[in-house]
C-alpha cells in the first residue's frame, strides 16, 4: 500500500472486524477513526454464537478456507490474552473442544462422511464411541457416536465486542457511534475520505468493514461494491444453573448447535435464511431450534427461555471473506466473513493491519482478494 505512517485511517463499521483492526492500528501508533451507524458491536458480532470451529464447520468445497481458519485458531489464545490485558474485560475463551453427535444410524452415516472429509484435510479430529460421548456429556440423548474436535473452542462474542470497544480507544482510536458513513469519497482514482454527519472526513485509507451492510455504503460503484448479502440467523438462549450446567462442550447435532457459556446461558443456533434484512423471529425458526435442541439434550425442557434474537451474517458470493486492496487506491476490504467472522477476527486484524502499516501482502490472504470476483 502506498500510504505514510502519519496518515489517518477511517474504518466503516465497528463490529469485531472493524474494532479489532482499529485496536491493532492504534496500538502501532497510526491515527484511526471508526464510524458506526449504530452502537458499536451490535451487528452480527452481537448475534453470533462465538464458536471458533475451523474443523467442525468445514464444508465440502470449502477446504480452501482452512489455511485462514486454522491460522486464526492458532492466533486466538494470544489475541484473547492481550485483549483482556488491554481492556480489563474477560472474553471467556473456553478450550473444552467440540462434539458433533449422531443420534441414529442415518446421522452416523452422514457424520462418518464428514469425518472422512476432515481427515483428508488432515484436521485433528477423532471418532468417539457412545460410551466416550457419554463420559464427556452425560446429559446428551443416547448418541450412536460423535466426531471429537479438540481444537474447536469458543469465545463469548458479546464480551469480545465489549473488550474491543474499550481497548481500541485506550490505544488511541476514535470511535463515533450513531454516525453512519453516507459516502466513501474517491477522487482521481484514489480515496480521499468519507462523508458522515454532514461533514467530510479526510483519510488516505478507508477500510470497508460494515458487515452485511458493506455493499450499500454510498460512493461505491459497480466496480468497487463488494458482493456481500445478509444471511439471516435466528438464535435463542436458555438459562442453565451456572453451577450445574447441562453441557460443558460445544455440541453440534442435526439442525443445531449448542454453546454453553460461563454464566450458565445455553446458546441454541441457528437458522440460515435468505430473507434480506428481515429481523423477525418466526414460530418455525424457534420451533426447529427447540425441537432439535430437545432431541439432543432432553433436559432443556425444564430451562427458562431467556432471549431470542436475529443477526445478519455478511455472506459473500462464495461465502469467503474479502480481504485487502481492491480497484481503488486506499480502499481496503475487510468484510464478507459469513459464518466465521468471530473465528477469523485475529487473522483478519493481523493481515489487514500489516497491509496498512507496512504494505505487507500476506500470501495467506491472496485467495481472499476482492479481484477474485471479476
Ligand atoms: P458486524 O458485527 O455486523 O459489524 C458491522 C457494523 O457495520 C455494524 O455495527 C453496523 O452497524 C455497521 N454499519 C453498517 N452500515 C454502516 C454505515 N453506513 N456506516 C457506519 N457503520 C455501518 N462467526 C463465528 O466465527 N462463529 C460463530 O459461532 C458464529 N455464529 C453466528 C451466528 C449467527 C446467528 C450470526 C448472524 C453470525 C454468526 N457468526 C459466527 C458470524 C459472525 O458473527 C460475523 O461473521 C462477524 O460478526 C462479522 O463481523 P463484522 O464486524 O464484519 O460485522
Ligand atoms: N457459525 C455459526 C453460524 O453462523 O450460525
From TrEMBL:
**Entry keyword set:** Oxidoreductase, Thiamine biosynthesis
Annotated Pfam families = DAO
Q: Name one GO molecular function term.
A: flavin adenine dinucleotide binding
Top-level taxon in the UniProt lineage: Bacteria
Pathway involvement of the protein, from the record: Cofactor biosynthesis; thiamine diphosphate biosynthesis
Reported EC number(s) for this entry are 1.4.3.19
Q: Does the keyword Oxidoreductase feature in the UniProt annotation?
A: yes
Q: Which GO terms describe its cellular component?
A: cytoplasm
Biological process terms in GO annotation: thiamine biosynthetic process; thiamine diphosphate biosynthetic process
Which SUPFAM superfamilies does the UniProt entry name for this protein? FAD-linked reductases, C-terminal domain, FAD/NAD(P)-binding domain
Domain spans labelled FAD dependent oxidoreductase? 9-354
What InterPro entries does the database record attribute to this sequence?
FAD-dep_OxRdtase (IPR006076), FAD/NAD-bd_sf (IPR036188), Gly_oxidase_ThiO (IPR012727)
**What general EC class does the enzyme of this chain belong to?**
oxidoreductase
Q: NCBIfam families per the record?
A: thiamin_ThiO
This protein is called: Glycine oxidase
Organism per entry:
Pseudochelatococcus contaminans
Top-level taxonomy: Bacteria, Pseudomonadati, Pseudomonadota, Alphaproteobacteria, Hyphomicrobiales
